[in-house]
Amino acid sequence: MLASSAEAWDRVRRRLRAELGEDVFSSWFARVELGGIIDGVAYLTVPTRFLKSWLEAHYAERLRVNCMAELPGLNGIMLSVRQVSRDATQAPAEIVALRSRPAQAAPAEARPAPVGSVPAETGERDLVDACGTLLDRRMNFQAFIVGKSNQLAFAAAERIAAAPAGTAPYNPLYIHAGVGLGKTHLLQAIAQEARGQGKRVAYFTADRFMYGFVAALKSQTALAFKEKLRGIDLLVVDDVQFIQGKSIQQEFGHTINALIDAGKQIVVAGDRLANDLEALDERIRSRLGGGLVVEVGDLDEVLRGKILASRLEALHAAHPNFHVNPDVVSYVARVVATNGRDLDGAANRLLAHATLSGQPVTLETAEAAIRDLVRTREPRRVKIEDIQKLVATRYNVSRADILSERRTAAVVKPRQIAMYLSKALTPRSLPEIGRRFGGRDHTTVLHAVRKIEKAITEDRSLHDEVDLLKRMLQE
Fold first, then answer.
1. Are 42 and 34 within 8 A, CB to CB?
2. pTM for the full model?
């Protein structure tokens, strides 16, 4: 890494420490490292999958804004887990060289269980796919808990895994879900089951696919990398929304086309519908949307109860004196209504209370232990019309002005802020936002979003102003 990048990363760390405080910084950011900058993307690495998931869920935007403020020419960030790679799919050389030592695996009890699963005994963890990726033995079909929200995705996954090599029941299968709902578990289960049947499987997260392609280019083994991918029976790609870079997306698209044309199966997962992944090439989105598209929905209370009970049962096996009565399980499953990872957190908090205090877990102690995981009320669903009205009032213009073709500074700035907030606070795609702003093209919205993102990193008063508008809209 160039010295300037290292110095800039030190400045990012200082900004985060100043904004969040020493306690938060030490807990979540102290072990984040800058691996390198490739094609305008900063590759950040962390030692554990749990830390990666937590940062993506809670601090991704803050990380991105601070990195873009200090690292010149940056247009995005990518988080990945540091690991020892086994072949040419490893991270680029300059990233590997920065690691003073391989990341140590957390003790089995400290690892979060796969979402929607019963944690299995640690055992051997040496399952490796055709491209050298380690697969997690715990994430299998037997450990996945099925409910109404995921039964269709589970059935499709099982059928694909069981299909003979050279057949593709649903091609491609595209699974989309929010954070912590089990899509990674399903993809890992497909890869493991298919591998166990003798099929050649390649399992990639988006960041590993990018690392592999860039490393192959640097080592002049790109042709071998491509041929290896085209020789497999099943390609599984997780978090496709993070694939960035024109050349990498082109190679990903070529790989998908080649495998589909050859009758090979493809399974891809993302955090939203394929058509809403604006950063992906349109041809890739079209391909992904042209197969079987399945959503893994929110966990209902019954499914949350099953997941929590299985997690507590596993903890009881490791700690025989740890007991939680059914009333407490029902209470926690009812009030922790977000995702499976928060259920894991609740189970761990109950265990910590019981082991540290030596007291049994009651409804009162459970309520205190999981207070930070309970959402007292549903977050307000922000509408684009609400954003337009509030911004118009704030800047003394009319909503009609914001929707008009007027290009005066007094109108352009609030219009761009409203577009930025619409992208940040609603699930609407760029084309949909453009239509809601007087039928504008999605590129106009993208320009506005990028301009405001850059401006709030450079202008503290504007940053505070936009932050205030966000809070007013969400309250």
1. yes
2. 0.57
Residue 399 CA: distances (Å) to CA of 369, 388, 389, 437, 445: 46, 6, 6, 10, 17
Please compute the mean of the pLDDT values over residues 33-55 and round it to a whole number. Answer: 81
At position 160, the amino acid (one-letter code) is I
Contacting residues for 70 by C-beta, under 8 A, at least 6 apart:
8, 9, 11, 12, 15
The phi and psi torsions of 390 (rounded to 5 degrees) equal -65, -45
| Distance in angstroms (rounded) separating the CA atoms of residues 353 and 350 | 5
Strands (E), 271-391: 292-295
Cα–Cα distances in angstroms (integers) from residue 435 to residues 69, 289, 403, 431, 441, in the given order: 30, 22, 10, 6, 7
Distances (CA, A) of 70 to 5, 34, 64, 184, 454: 9, 13, 10, 33, 11
pLDDT at 131: 66
The more confidently predicted of residues 23 and 170 is 170
Which secondary structure element, helix H or strand E, spans residue 84, and what is its range? none
Please give the full DSSP string across 268-304, using - where no structure is assigned: EEESS-GGG-TTS-HHHHHHHHTSEEEE--PPPHHHH
- Selection from 262, 235, 279, 247 nearest residue 133 by Cα: 235
**Distances, alpha carbon 68 to alpha carbons 181, 444, 454, in Å:** 30, 21, 8
Q: What pLDDT, on the 0 to 100 scale, is given for residue 265?
A: 93
41-46 and 76-81: which strand pairing? parallel
Question: Phi-psi bin for 441: left (phi > 0), alpha (psi -120 to 50), beta?
Answer: beta
Asked which of 105-109, 202-206, 372-376 is least confident by mean pLDDT, the reply is: 105-109
Percent of the chain with pLDDT over 90: 20
Average pLDDT, the chain: 81
Cβ-proximal residues to 432 (8 Å cutoff; 6+ apart), any chain: none
Which runs of E-coded beta strand occur in 142-223? Answer: 173-176, 201-205
Q: If residue 236 lies in a helix (H) or strand (E), which one and from where to where? A: strand 234-238
The encoded tokens of residue 223 equal 């042709």
Contacts of 218 (CB under 8 A, 6+ apart): 92, 93
Sign of the torsion formed by the C-alpha atoms of 364, 365, 368 and 370:
negative
| E strand intervals along 239-355 | 265-270, 292-295
* Whether the predicted pLDDT of 135 surpasses 90: no
